[in-house]
Amino acid sequence: MESDQSADEGQEEVDDPLTRDDTFEILSNHRRRFALHHLQQNGDRADLGDLSEHVAAWENDIGVAEVSSSERKRVYTSLQQFHLPKMDEKGVVEFDDREGVVELTAAAGDVDIYLEVVDGNDVPWSQYYLGLAAVNLGILGAALAGLYPFTLVPSAGLALLVVTTFLVSALVHTYFNRTEMRLGDSDTPPEVEG
């Protein structure tokens, strides 16, 4: 009876959706993000050795064929002993340590979030939209104050300008998020420069 109860408790944990804290904990480590990326990119299932090679390649910014045995072993051990068991515990993957196979679960869909990777002098999208709103507000304020040349543009033209700038920005933002910022949607993880 005790084993039935523990099996039921384990099933409840898997059926529960991931909490925000669980999601952030899983995504807080680059090896776990890289592992999720590889699994999503390659049919939701991978051999631990193959997974280790890809994660090591991304970590060292080299091709898979260039990964040394020590780099692969370091990642393999870390994934096997720490990262994959943690992800298995949270219900994101099923990790069979004896077989050396990792498989995504349905709960991995809860981790399918956009990552905003901002390199160097790039501006985060949130700051971009704040700046765009400030510029549009300045233009509308100048037109309402009757400042030349803004008085030459009809109100409908100004409204069209504001809507168009946000529409174009949102389309570009959506494009980048779908093609470059999502785990599993590109050859390399979003944070690895191609």
The level of helicity is: 55-70%
Strand content range: 5-15%
Tally of helical runs: 7
The spatial strand order of the largest sheet comes to 1-3-2
SSE order in H/E notation?
Answer: HHHEHHEEHH
Roughly what is the average pLDDT, rounded to an integer? Answer: 81
CATH topology of the largest domain: Arc Repressor Mutant, subunit A
- Structural domain tally: 2
Give the C-alpha Rg.
23 Å
Largest sheet: 3 strands, antiparallel
Distance between the termini: 54 Å
Give the C-level CATH assignment of the largest domain.
Mainly Alpha
SSE blueprint:
Layout: H1 2-15, H2 20-27, H3 30-41, E1 45-47, H4 48-60, H5 69-89, E2 93-96, E3 101-104, H6 125-144, H7 155-179
Antiparallel strand pairs: 1-3, 2-3
Helix pairs in contact: 3-4, 4-5, 6-7
Written overview of the protein:
The chain has 194 residues and is mostly helical. It folds into two domains: 2-111, Arc Repressor Mutant, subunit A (Orthogonal Bundle); 116-194. The protein is 58% helix and 6% strand. Strands 1-3-2 form a three-stranded antiparallel β-sheet. α4 crosses α5 (69-89) and α6 (125-144) packs antiparallel against α7 (155-179). It is elongated and about 75 Å long. The model is unreliable at 6-14 (pLDDT under 50).
